[in-house]
């Protein structure tokens, strides 16, 4: 039978000389394999096999960790991990101000050339212009402005040119951009805004709508969060993809491009913020709350913009309608973006080499335990007893899964990595089933 690999070589290269090279490489590989088999003892071969499988499993898990989809993730596990250590009160970020635009809407025509096309409502851009001008005129030393607001082509207003000129003239400001695909034919209204834009999309898989992952690079372009992070540090895009592989690096480290985010709190309407009783009085604790752009900011005479927004991040978005389901409840999309920025700012996306080493060695121990620790099951007193073999198999499976949960706990508490163990658990269960069937066949 003709070797198909030789066939490929012959067709691609068109020369028999390459076949000589192929035969040489194949012979060298076979020689090393036979030499290793003859020289290495059985325990060494077992260790080498376990190391290779652990490496393969590590690569598969890393690839899965860089997928933007929320799929088969045990989010409830992280709720249990956080609950004993989580503060009893909601988290409060004193260096950010959230501004809600859900009540500041205006009607625009769907088609300016057709009066019968109807209208739709969009964010009131005249109020955005007024707010940005106020910051500029009073020279407010804000840290950064993040505008999770759509500026879609075809939905234009009379103040667009003035607003876009204002955005382009300001420092440290980013607006949201979206991918143009079959589900959302989005095109930004003014191409000049692209220099201030970052991607702001969430990925869903089929009917699974719960949010848990945020991608910093989206369609190989920096997200609104990544652009904000890199602009503030005055650096080029800090996360890079290696070729077309699902491998991402940052600061000479492997990193997670689509990590599972920690949702540390929420943001509330100030009027309906959670209250607590203290000495017979109902007081509002320090929680994240948002202000309405028009009623709470622009319509207040004598408001001190420097005192309210100086040295703060300003996050502008719809905090009442743009809501996503998460393991921690329903959370506004603009707040998820803020949490993703916190994730970057604390460098939780970077995978330390110690974490990589511990994870790899844990996989090695699990593989070795599953495949080669069978001395008890091979004893004569247990070989012919199905109940004993089943109990030993269950013990092996529980021990491996227990170690996986320990890895999850350690990685979460020591390395701040919310590690998805679905693939390792599937692998362990599948491997344990194969071993059990093989043992029965050998009996």
In short, what is this structure?
The protein contains 14 helices and 18 strands. It is an alpha/beta fold.
Describe this structure as you would to a colleague.
Residues 1-6 and 11-15 have low confidence and may be disordered. The chain has 443 residues and is of the alpha/beta class. 44% of the residues lie in helices and 15% in strands. The protein is built from 14 helices and 18 strands. The strands form six sheets. It has a seven-stranded parallel sheet with strand order 6-5-4-16-1-15-12. A three-stranded antiparallel sheet has the order 9-10-11, with no helix packed on it. Helix 7 crosses helix 10. It is elongated and about 80 Å long. The longest helix has 29 residues, at 386-414.
Which consecutive residue ranges, at least 5 long each, have pLDDT under 50? 1-6, 11-15
Helix content: 40-55%
**Within the largest sheet, what's the order of strands?**
6-5-4-16-1-15-12
Structural classification: alpha/beta
Q: Kindly, what is the distance between the CA atoms of the first and last residues, rounded to a whole number of angstroms?
A: 37 Å
Question: What's the number of extended β-strand segments?
Answer: 18
What is the C-alpha radius of gyration, as a whole number of Å? Answer: 29 Å
Q: How would a crystallographer describe the biggest sheet?
A: 7 strands, parallel
Number of helices, counting only DSSP H or I runs of 4 residues or more: 14
- Average predicted local confidence, pLDDT: 78
Shape: elongated
The fraction of residues in strands falls at 5-15%
């Amino acid at each position: 039978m003709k070797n198909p690999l030789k066939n490929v070589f012959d067709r691609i290269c068109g020369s028999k000389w390459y076949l000589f090279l192929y035969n040489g490489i194949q012979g060298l590989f076979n020689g090393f394999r036979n030499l290793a088999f003859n020289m290495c003892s059985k325990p060494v071969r077992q260790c080498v096999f376990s190391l290779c499988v652990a490496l393969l499993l590590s690569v598969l898990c890393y690839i899965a960790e860089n997928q933007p989809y929320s799929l088969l993730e045990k989010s409830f596990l992280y709720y249990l991990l956080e609950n004993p250590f989580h503060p009893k009160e909601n988290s409060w970020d004193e260096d950010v101000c959230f501004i809600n635009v859900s009540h500041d809407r205006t009607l625009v025509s769907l088609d300016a050339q057709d009066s019968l096309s109807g209208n739709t409502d969009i964010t009131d851009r005249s109020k955005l212009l007024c707010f940005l001008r106020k910051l500029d005129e009073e020279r407010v030393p804000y840290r950064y402005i993040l505008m999770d607001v759509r500026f879609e082509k075809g939905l234009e207003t009379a103040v667009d040119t003035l607003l876009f000129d204002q955005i382009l003239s300001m420092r440290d400001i980013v607006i949201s951009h979206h991918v143009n695909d079959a589900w959302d034919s989005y095109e930004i209204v003014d191409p000049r805004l692209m220099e201030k834009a970052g991607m702001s999309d969430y990925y869903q898989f089929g009917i699974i709508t719960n949010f848990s992952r945020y991608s910093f690079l989206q369609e190989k372009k920096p997200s609104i969060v990544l652009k904000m992070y890199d602009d503030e540090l005055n650096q080029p895009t800090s996360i890079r993809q290696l070729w077309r592989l699902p491998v991402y690096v940052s600061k000479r480290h492997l990193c997670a491009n689509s990590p599972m985010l920690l949702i540390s709190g929420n943001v509330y309407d100030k009027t309906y913020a959670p209250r607590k009783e203290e000495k017979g009085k109902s007081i509002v604790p320090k929680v994240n709350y948002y202000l309405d752009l028009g009623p709470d900011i622009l319509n207040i005479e004598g408001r001190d913009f420097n005192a309210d927004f100086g040295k703060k991040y300003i996050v502008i978005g719809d905090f009442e309608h743009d809501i996503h389901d998460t393991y921690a409840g329903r959370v506004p999309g603009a707040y998820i973006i803020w949490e993703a920025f916190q994730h970057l700012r604390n460098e939780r996306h970077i995978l330390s080499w110690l974490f990589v080493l511990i994870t790899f060695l844990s996989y090695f121990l699990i593989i070795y335990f599953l495949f080669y620790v069978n001395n008890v099951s091979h004893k004569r007193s247990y070989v012919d007893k199905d109940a004993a073999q089943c109990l030993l198999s269950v013990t092996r499976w529980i021990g491996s899964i227990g170690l996986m949960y320990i890895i999850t706990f350690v990685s979460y508490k020591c390395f701040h990595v919310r590690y998805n163990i679905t693939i390792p658990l599937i692998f362990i269960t599948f491997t344990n089933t194969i071993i059990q069937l093989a043992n029965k066949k050998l009996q």
